[in-house]
């Protein structure tokens, strides 16, 4: 597969024998939906493992210092990735990332830029 295929494309193409794929999301809920969908689509089981309470307490103290900065950094990274895909003609993959930015990082500058790109790409899509 060339480019940057989605997880679902890889599973569809390489799991022709319909082997159940069991998934686990550790500590960070950012990828929970994707992991759950992969398991569900293949007949596998999904599980979320939360951080240990001592780790959660120490990380929440550290992350409370600048949660907005962390959100902005994540959103801007995804925006960079979407723009890179778009520049290589992968508009559908870019749109998916723009939608994710808009959904998961609302209120950020990146979400506003993503919304504008979604409108622009939708208008140019035949």
Tally of alpha and pi helices? 6
Overall tally of domains: 2
Oligomer: single chain
Q: Mean pLDDT, rounded to whole units?
A: 82
* Count of DSSP strands: 2
Which blocks of ≥5 consecutive residues have pLDDT under 50? none
Which structural class do the helices and strands define? Answer: mainly alpha
Give me the Rg, rounded.
17 Å
Structural description of this entry:
The chain has helices at residues 7-14, 32-42, 53-63, 67-87, 91-104, 109-124; strands at residues 23-26, 46-49. It has 126 residues and is mostly helical. The chain has 2 domains: 1-65, no CATH class; 66-126. It has a two-stranded parallel sheet. Helix 2 links the parallel strand 1 and strand 2 (46-49).
Feature tags:
6% strand, 2 strands, 126 residues, 2 domains, two-stranded parallel ribbon, 64% helix, mainly alpha
Summarize the structure.
It contains 6 helices and 2 strands. The relative contact order is 0.11. It has a two-stranded parallel sheet.
